[in-house]
Design a protein that fits this description.
- This protein is of the alpha+beta class.
- The chain has a domain of 42 residues: Classic Zinc Finger (Double Stranded RNA Binding Domain), CATH 3.30.160.
- It contains 9 helices and 16 strands.
- A two-stranded antiparallel ribbon has the order 1-2.
- β7 and β8 form a beta hairpin.
- It starts with 7 loop residues before the first strand and ends with a helix.
- About 5% of the residues have low confidence.
């Protein structure tokens, strides 16, 4: 629906865009359409630029390097956001509270916490979410037959995800040797099994207290690299 000769409004959430193409791309958030498919994996994207950036994750190319540490990035924008962790710059401020962030996307998602707005709606079941990321996660349920975990009734869209969940979340008794024989990666302290040796190695840090991944700003330690990265974004960004 066009509000004037120069603006185009989304009929579902009311967002307004200056170009019709921008509205077309935005509508894919509501419909779930991902016309740009990666030739190397099953991921798909709403715009070609996102596909090009994603392809770098397969090639391993990271052309943008931080001059304050050894971190490298596939996008210049990501590098600029990362540098703010070192400088402490948080240019994006919420108008309703004291929240500040080094990333505009973090601020946009935060703003939704002040309202009941859920602009991202599933085209198949009409369930609504506050973020596009939450909608994407939900859409996986519609892609394949829903599989339910027998231990906790959690649902999954593929056998692989269900299997990974079972191995990661549910403790198996030492007497349950069948799964241990399949995976071969059993924790000798709590008897939890893992599909990969690397996962078992990380798990053992819970018992040993080892936290090898240190924050470059405050030196806080973490068991996983992902935990440290999330800490950087939340505490120092």
């Amino acid at each position: 629906m066009a509000t004037s000769s120069r603006t185009h409004e989304c009929a579902q959430c009311g967002k307004v865009y200056g170009r019709k193409y921008a509205l077309t791309v935005h509508m894919r958030n509501h419909t779930g359409e991902r016309p740009y498919q990666c030739a190397l994996c099953d991921k798909a994207f709403t715009v070609k630029g996102s596909l090009v950036k994603h392809t770098l994750t397969h090639t391993g190319e990271r052309p943008y390097q931080c001059n304050l540490c050894d971190r490298q990035f596939t996008e210049k924008g990501r590098l600029n956001e990362h540098v703010r962790i070192h400088t402490g710059d948080r240019p994006y401020k919420c108008a309703l509270c004291d929240y500040r962030s080094c990333r505009l996307s973090n601020l946009e998602e935060h703003k939704l916490s002040h309202s009941d707005e859920k602009p991202f709606q599933c085209a198949q079941c009409h369930r609504a979410y506050k973020s596009n990321q939450a909608l994407k996660k939900h859409m996986g349920i519609h892609k394949k037959v829903v599989l339910r975990c027998a231990a906790c009734d959690r649902e999954f869209s593929s056998q692989r995800r269900l299997r990974r969940h079972e191995l990661k979340r549910h403790v198996v008794s030492v007497k349950s040797t069948h799964r241990a024989q399949i995976t071969g990666h059993l924790c000798d302290l709590c008897h939890k099994t893992f599909s990969r040796e690397s996962r078992l190695h990380i798990h053992r840090r819970k018992h040993s207290g080892e936290k090898p991944h240190k924050c470059v700003v405050c030196a806080r330690g973490f068991r996983r690299m992902r935990q440290m990265k999330n800490h950087l974004l939340r505490a120092h960004c």
